[in-house]
Design goal:
The complex is a heterodimer of chains A (95) and B (495).
Chain A (H helix, E strand, L loop, with lengths): L4 H10 L9 H15 L34 H5 L5 E2 L2 E2 L7
Antiparallel strand pairs in A: 1-2
Chain B lengths: L8 H10 L4 H13 L7 E4 L1 H16 L10 E5 L26 H8 L3 E6 L38 H8 L5 E6 L5 H7 L2 E4 L19 E6 L2 H11 L29 E5 L9 H16 L3 E5 L7 H16 L20 H12 L2 H14 L4 H24 L4 E5 L16 H5 L6 H6 L3 E8 L5 E8 L4 H15 L10
Parallel strand pairs in B: 2-3, 2-4, 7-8, 7-9
Antiparallel strand pairs in B: 1-3, 4-6, 5-6, 5-10, 9-11, 10-11
Classes of the chains: A mainly alpha (95), B alpha/beta (495).
Amino acid sequence: MSIDQSTAAKVAKLARIKVEDDALPALADEFNNILGFIEQLNEVDVSGVEPMTSVTPQRLKRRVDEVTDGGQQPKVLANAPDAREGFFAVPKVVE
Amino acid sequence: MSDLNKLGLAEARDALRKGDTTSVELTEACLKAIDAADALNAFVHKTPEVAMERAKAADERIKAGDAPSMCGLPVGIKDLFCTKGVASQAASGILEGFKPEYESTVSQKLADAGSVMLGKLNMDEFAMGSSNETSVYGNAVSPWRRDGDEAQITPGGSSGGSAAAVAADLCLAATGTDTGGSIRQPAAFTGTVGIKPTYGRCSRWGIVAFASSLDQAGPMTKSVRDAAIMLEAMCGHDPKDSTSAELAVPDFEAMLTGDIKGKKIGIPKEYRMDGMPEEISKLWADGAEMLKAAGAEIVDISLPHTKYALPAYYVIAPAEASSNLARYDGVRYGHRAALEAGDGITEMYEKTRAEGFGSEVQRRVMIGTYVLSAGFYDAYYNRARRVRTLIKKDFEDVFAAGVDAILTPATPSAAFGLGEMTEADPVQMYLNDVFTVTVNLAGLPGVAVPAGLDKQGLPLGLQLIGKPWEEGDLLNTAYALENAAGFVAKPQQWW
């Protein structure tokens, strides 16, 4: 499996990381190098083997569906780069 | 008493209880050592006010006869742990200025046990790295140097600042976290002890997430006894982490008898790598001899899927990281890029993440995005999770056959020089974790114990791997190995 520049650009877009066009060839090379290493997994016979979901066999615990926390608006907003009138502020999303 | 910062946890605890010293004196000695060690770049956010306040409170408690297990003992906290009101950046530019409104469960438990926080410790960005060279704060530097050479050496990673600080006696002990070897590799590189407990022993709540199915916190200390004391203070069930185990935490220190007669120690043949340095093979053989001399039975074992652990890890860890790191979007905390006229929310995300994440983090987030993307999910991610099942089964089979613990080298070499791996491709750096990463994939406890020096005078460590939830037994075997190896070397102070 070889990654070309347009695939590298697509992955960067999906990851929401801006990559300049002139950096794409090197990025594609790096991907190919790492994926080449990962390809070794194809040597393993995994037929009939379940994919691991939890390393310790356990059922996720359930709790009563009730409010246990809240009312912490100032704390939630305290680290925001831009917060106004009790909300997170972002660039215009809808025209 | 002089050189109080050079004490371990157990010695300092006993001195405090006897009234030979005070927490304020211990803390002042550490703060002085920290200020004199800026060349190591280990402490990246110093908290002397918090430290002195907690030290005074600890002295009051000791005087009142109400001293919990780590009362008055000064420790460092890895920057990955959220600490209330104190910068917690995971060594990333994207969390610049972030001061959590809450405290991680593990650091809270350590505070409840009476310990004194000296500050936050350097690390690889988001714990992604094996040399502490991906940190936004710059490299942490090992206190160790090669004989007759002034080149700077890596303390390992990702818990490089923790390892450097403990080895240089800037603190009595430190917290680390381990996703693929990030406690055990730096411990081995700096002649210190580091244990990654069983997955689920320590709560992950409030620790900046890298790969949630692999991440575990653990102590980095000057001795196995100290590791037992600190691990006990860090462990325990936490309803805020759904993978936290509801199991009682034993008195680990009381389990250190040094008696390992009749224990079966496995030596896995797959860990004998091609091109393994002679010094590492010898150290490993010597370690096995020491355990045998202490009464253990040494048996050859096979863990057939070992070779596939690193490739599986480099699918699973980046996949989980790409998901976990999606939260850094420039909206809720940390850095937001300056925008140009006309930039919308997508440009804000893309510019913020390009500026805020370093190159290794970007690489892993994108690899993770790729292996999870439509069309590749089955071929990469699901296949890796199947291989992970097989790796865990390798260990289960060995333990079912009666093996109590497994002995391996901790790292494939001694520490390398900072900058020496810059030209190597990322995969070369990943190979540092070849002996440690299997343990994370299988969720097992693993401990690195210093066992010798290489011919250039740098520390080498051995790793012991234990059964799930049997950290006490594992630490006891580590204690026997520590006693037999008699490692006492310390770095000569040049900083």
